[in-house]
Amino acid sequence: MPEEFLKAALQAIPSAASNPLSLIAFVCLIAAWVFISYRVTRNKQVLSHIKDIPENQRADIVRAEMGTVIPPNSSENIVQKIKNLLLRSDPSFQLFRLSRRV
Q1: Which domain holds residue 85?
Q2: CA 23 vs CA 15, 20, 60, 96, 99: distances in Å
């Protein structure tokens, strides 16, 4: 999917450059996509190593990395909640979260 997006973005540059406002919007869209892709990749890395972290430190690490508070539960519940967060990590959801932080 990232390759398809990048191909489409490269093909859209000439039409976006026809108007200065559309070019600015295009650049903002690409920047948001890069930021979201980075966050999703980082969250997946945290999830893949969560079992290596001591159980009493997992909630703090998840809170620091993902910017969300997870109530204290067993480690399996924390892993399940992180997976649910990642499933909702599509660009529209992430852009909504980003706009709420500003």
Answers
A1: 2-101
A2: 9, 5, 40, 22, 20
Q: Which residue is it, tokens 């997006």? A: 5
Integer Cα distance of 53 and 75 in angstroms: 10
Residue 6 one-letter amino acid: L
Q: How many domains does the chain have?
A: 1
Return the DSSP state at 72: S
Check residue 102 and give its pLDDT. 46
Q: What is the pTM of this model?
A: 0.55
CA-based radius of gyration for the chain: 17
- Give the count of alpha carbons within 13 A of 15, CB side only: 5
